[in-house]
Specification:
The complex is a heterodimer of chains A (about 220) and B (about 425).
Chain A: E1 3-14, E2 18-29, E3 33-38, H1 44-51, E4 59-64, E5 67-68, H2 74-84, E6 85-88, H3 100-105, H4 115-128, H5 144-156, E7 162-166, H6 174-186, E8 193-198, H7 201-205, E9 209-214, E10 217-223
Parallel strand pairs in A: 3-8, 3-9, 6-7, 7-8
Antiparallel strand pairs in A: 1-2, 1-4, 4-5, 9-10
Helix pairs in contact in A: 4-5, 5-6
Chain B: H1 2-6, H2 26-39, H3 41-79, E1 83-88, H4 103-108, E2 113-121, E3 127-128, E4 142-146, H5 150-154, E5 158-161, E6 173-176, H6 178-184, E7 194-197, E8 200-208, E9 220-223, H7 225-232, E10 240-245, H8 250-261, E11 269-272, H9 274-285, H10 290-317, H11 319-327, H12 332-368, H13 377-404, H14 407-412
Parallel strand pairs in B: 4-9, 6-8
Antiparallel strand pairs in B: 1-10, 1-11, 2-4, 2-10, 3-7, 5-8, 6-9, 7-8
Helix pairs in contact in B: 2-12, 3-9, 3-10, 3-12, 3-13, 10-12, 10-13, 12-13
The chains are: A alpha/beta (about 220), B alpha+beta (about 425).
């Protein structure tokens, strides 16, 4: 199988000398579903931002969806994020001034798709996450679980190659959390790769592959 | 599922050909900027208000002065642009020429001339309210002999009494210009009201309305030529002849005036059209005062700083949104363009609001003074464009700040 994410000896150092990643080497195949588990400060989120091309590694090589990140221009990386990478965050990052439909449609804003196409796709994506009846609702009118489902629809609306989810259940009760994880796992059926960060062992246990992080290193790569 | 028809299926490799780019067409950018403003309506309105006040003040200054100027020009036109003046010019040797005494009847009988009237300077005469006033205190009042037709040719009425007529040729009668009357403190005419002109008592028989077409006449008093000749030895050579031509013949008459007034020396006659000079003066007067425009500019500057301030705060508050947009594929350029567009749009809307304020102020002013309502066309374009430019400049720093934010930092906040 092709590898969609490939990290080799990746080091990420922040200003002030904090080493968030200390030589990470890992490769994720297309369609794979991976949970990254670790305590706070273990480098999980940094790992995700490097995978998501939001930050460049200090050293080492990173390849995402066939693109060599070090050599790619900022514009190329933005294009990659616009078309191929979907993000889901712990605190949703929905815009209160927009309806659920328009929030999801912004997922396609930077792809160059027309407004009409964006809304059509957004409607389909919301139906897919079971919110077909909530198109005109504003985020404040939705429950936490529903909000995260809107955010998932926004990540999926571009039909990404990779979905990166950073503690998507962190702000949810366990029941909604399970729903959300179920939804995210569902994208695998279309060949989308899923990388999910969590410190919830129970959620991680549901994944076929689990990367264990500690102090900026991968200390365990379990498959079941 | 519908979505499958809309977008390509996911693939591990990008499709062959050009790499997928992150795009935000101008129209979409405008939509994003509008949405950003809509989200914070009150704040947007308040910060646009600064620009609106600045631009409004400037539009009002320009509008009010344009309206006043248009009114002045209309008044001048109403007096008739068909008045021409004939004055003695210079001789070949540089001395002052003299118009022949035949010039007035000659001009009066020209084709295309409705009427001609002349004034003759009575240089030796001095006007005094009474014999006890020293002769040096003339109050700047000159004495002219005048044709009976003068008020008619100048389109001037009388504030009181009547003008000189055939009777005045035999009796010492005087008509006062409007300013002369006010200097002499004479408001009414009457048999017993006398005016002392160079050792002679004259009866005031009339007071002229202000003469707009030649305001120098306002500070003069007028007597008949025969009386002036008899008492002061005034020569019958006109110092100025006013000619009212047919409106359609003004140009032609104007060309022939010099030769008709003095056939022997037409080059020593100057001909002018007083409305031209008045219009030029009105136009110069209509120029808006620099001071008021300066005040408007200060208001604009304050407005611009207000917008910059609000945008900086907005960038700090919207770190999450900026991070999200970067995650959704926005480049740094898109982020800075978004904030720049918001700022420019805000100020452009302020500019349009200012145009409306300024227009309204001008309209109210024009209505109150019964003047024509005029806002120059260039102001209609300049107001929003000016706002746009100010907003763009004010937004430069906040936009750069937003673009510099690291997406990770922004998402963590």
């Amino acid at each position: 199988m092709t590898s969609v994410l490939a990290l080799r000896d990746v080091v990420k150092e922040y200003a002030g000398g904090v080493r968030a990643l200390r030589g990470v080497t890992v490769s994720v195949q297309a369609g794979e579903q991976v949970a990254i588990v670790g305590a706070s400060g273990s480098g999980k989120t940094t790992m995700l931002t490097v995978l998501g091309t939001l930050e460049r590694a200090t050293s080492g090589s990173v390849e995402v969806a066939g693109v060599d990140i070090e050599r790619a221009s900022e514009a190329r990386l933005a294009g990659l994020r616009a078309h191929r990478i979907g993000f889901v965050f712990q605190d949703f990052h929905l815009q209160e001034s927009l309806t659920a439909l328009d929030n999801v449609a912004t997922g396609l804003l930077y792809t160059g798709a027309t407004a009409r196409r964006r809304r059509e796709a957004a409607r389909a994506a919301l139906e897919r996450v079971g919110l077909g009846e909530r198109l005109a609702h504003r985020p404040s009118m939705l429950s936490g679980g529903e909000r995260q489902r809107v955010a998932i629809a926004r990540a999926l609306v571009k039909r990404p190659v990779i979905v990166l989810a950073d503690e998507p259940t962190g702000n949810l009760d366990s029941r909604s959390g399970e729903d959300v994880v179920g939804l995210l796992k569902g994208v695998g059926s279309e060949g989308t790769t899923l990388v999910l960060i969590t410190h919830d062992q129970q959620i991680a246990a549901g994944f076929a592959r689990r990367l264990l992080m500690r102090d900026g290193e991968i200390v365990g790569d379990e498959r079941s | 599922m519908a979505v499958e028809h809309v977008l390509p299926s996911p693939a591990a490799e990008p499709p062959s050909g050009a790499p997928e780019r992150s795009r935000l067409p101008a129209l979409e950018l405008l939509g994003v900027a509008l949405q950003g403003l809509r989200t914070r309506r009150l704040r947007a309105a308040l910060s646009a208000l600064g620009i609106a006040i600045g631009i409004g003040a400037m539009v009002a200054v320009v509008g009010v002065s344009s309206s006043a100027q248009a009114n002045l020009l209309a008044e001048i036109d109403a007096l008739g642009t068909n008045l021409l003046t004939v004055t003695p010019g210079s001789t070949l040797f540089g001395g002052t020429a003299v118009l022949p005494n035949s010039s007035v009847p000659m001009l009066d009988h020209m084709d295309g001339v409705q009427a001609a009237a002349a004034v003759y300077q009575a240089q030796t005469a001095v006007v005094l309210r009474s014999p006890y006033v020293p002769t040096t205190q003339t109050g700047g009042i000159g004495v002219d002999a005048a044709s009976d037709a003068l008020p008619r040719v100048l389109s001037t009425g009388l504030a009181a009494g009547r003008f000189l007529n055939a009777v005045s040729a035999r009796y010492p009668e005087v008509v006062l210009g409007s300013e002369a009357a006010s200097v002499l403190q004479i408001e009414h005419v009457g048999q017993h009201l006398l005016l002392f002109v160079d050792d002679r008592w004259f009866v005031v028989i009339g007071i002229l309305d202000p003469v707009t077409l030649d305001s120098t006449l306002n500070s003069d008093v007028f007597i008949s030529l025969p009386v002036a000749h008899r008492l002061f030895g005034t020569a019958p050579n006109p110092s100025e002849i006013y000619v009212r031509a047919d409106q359609s013949e003004v140009e032609g008459v104007s060309r022939l005036l010099a030769a008709t007034a003095d056939p022997k020396n037409p080059s020593s006659v100057s001909v002018a059209r007083p409305t031209d000079a008045l219009k030029a003066r009105a136009a110069a007067k209509g120029q808006f005062t620099t001071l008021l425009l300066g005040l408007g500019a200060v208001a604009l500057l304050v407005g611009a700083i207000g917008i910059a301030n609000i945008m900086v705060i907005s960038v700090l508050e919207r770190r999450g949104e900026i991070g999200l947009r970067r995650a959704l594929g926005a480049t740094r350029g898109h982020i800075s363009a978004q904030f720049l567009a918001e700022s420019a749009l805000l100020a452009a809307l302020g500019g349009i609001a200012g145009l409306l304020f300024g227009g309204l102020a001008t309209w109210v002013y024009a209505q109150n003074r019964q003047q024509p309502f005029v806002v120059p066309t260039w102001a209609l374009i300049a107001a929003p464009v000016c706002g746009l430019a100010i907003g763009a400049i004010a937004g430069l720093y906040p936009a750069a700040k937003a673009a510099r934010l690291s997406p990770t930092e922004a998402l963590r906040s």
